[in-house]
Amino acid sequence: MREVDLSSSSILIVDDQQPNVELLEQILGMQGYRKVASTTDSRQVATICSELNPDLILLDLHMPHLGGLEVIEQLRCLPSDLYVPILVLTADITPEAKRQALQSGASDFLSKPFDVTEVLLRVRNLLETRFLYLQVQNQNSLLEETVRARTSALEAAQDALVRKNEELSLALAKASEVAELKSQFLANINHEIRTPINGILGMVNLLTDSELNAEQQECIDMLRSSSDWLVKVMNDILDVSQLGSGKARIERRMFDPRILMEELSTVYRSRAHAKGLKFYSTVTPAVPRRVSGDPGKVRQVLDQLLGNAVKFTESGRVSLSAELLHETCDALTVRFAVDDTGIGITEEQRSRLFEPFVQGDGSLTRRYGGTGIGLTLSKKLVELQGGELGLDDRPGGGTTAWFTATLEKLPAEDLMEEGKIPTLR
């Protein structure tokens, strides 16, 4: 144990013989103990202890009026939770005397006549015991205070967490309600707009069947194109709303990827040729003719990528391809890609492309048009099919937009010939 300065300890001497008291005071004074009190009347001990709060009591065992054993019992009954060692002074060194004193609560014995060395050693040992006891009590108090503080902080944090969870639950319920209302609103708006557009398209078809001059035919073609574009925009907005509210679902039905590619190629080949662009379409032989998946969503994503490729390419070519990436006993992963020699894309634009209602460059909206939701919608549709969508730049300009789709295998039928098979020209 580290060295402790015990000279400031408070010591009480209780002995009915004044010479014994003076001798003990002299011995303790020689050792440097400065706070020493004494009394020869054992009846005053309880009162003195209440005022002095001694760290050690030297108590004579045999005294008139109130014996040492009675004093010990009286002291131990005082309302105090602190341990005060009691050193019994006695000339009776019989085992019975020691047993009675220990049973009453004494801490140690000091035989009369006094030996100076023994007095100092026993006093020091008991004071060190007292000091260690107080140190433990202090540490326990600090620990209890720390536990109380941390418990209080934990309870406060738990209450705050409960309140925050309640607030989040309310906010989530409100957000769900708002999302549902928004979805219903968009569906209603879509229906309300689609109804007059269908009427417009019907009238356009009737006018197309009539005899028109070149200028009238051009106006009708422009009206049909604008109506088709408006329908596509409304469909995209409705799809984004459904995906955001978790209502979109994947359909599973049989389709032929080659026929899907051929149909899209027929549409976009004519658009590419109108801009003076070359158009190519290839499907690797490993892609089977019969698969199960959602051809509508595959077509929707390809339609978006091909539309962007033709829109943002001023010269050169646009290519559409499909290849088998991975195959298991019951599923396969097909990679669809649209490659162009268009304006390309910067890193800054790439980081913003998949944000809703954002185009890579604000000037693109003015020059090429568009809502900025196409790629966002495509990305969500691809993820819904268990795939991923990406854009790759090529040195010298141009972009490759690709996505993967996980499709279910069906019994193989007619296998395609080896090599890349072009679709219908």
Protein architecture, described:
This protein has 425 residues and is α/β, with parallel strands linked by helices. It contains eleven helices and 13 strands. The chain has helices at residues 18-31, 45-52, 68-76, 95-104, 116-209, 214-244, 257-274, 295-311, 347-352, 362-368, 374-384, and strands spanning 10-14, 35-39, 56-60, 86-90, 108-111, 253-255, 278-283, 291-293, 317-327, 331-340, 389-393, 399-409, 421-422. The strands form two sheets. Strands 6, 7, 8, 9, 10, 11, 12 and 13 form an eight-stranded mixed β-sheet that branches. It has a five-stranded parallel β-sheet with strand order 2-1-3-4-5, with helices on both faces. Strand 9 (317-327) and strand 10 (331-340) form a beta hairpin. It is rod-shaped, with a radius of gyration of 49 Å. The relative contact order is 0.07.
Q: What is the element string, with H for helices and E for strands?
A: EHEHEHEHEHHEHEEHEEHHHEEE
Can you tell me the CATH topology of the largest domain? Heat Shock Protein 90
Oligomer: single chain
Which architecture name of the largest domain does CATH use? Answer: 2-Layer Sandwich
Number of domains: 3
Spans where pLDDT lies below 50 across 5 or more residues:
364-372, 414-425
Given helix and strand content, the structural type is alpha/beta
Q: Count up the helices.
A: 11
Largest sheet: 8 strands, mixed
CATH superfamily assignment of the largest domain? Histidine kinase-like ATPase, C-terminal domain
Shape: rod-shaped
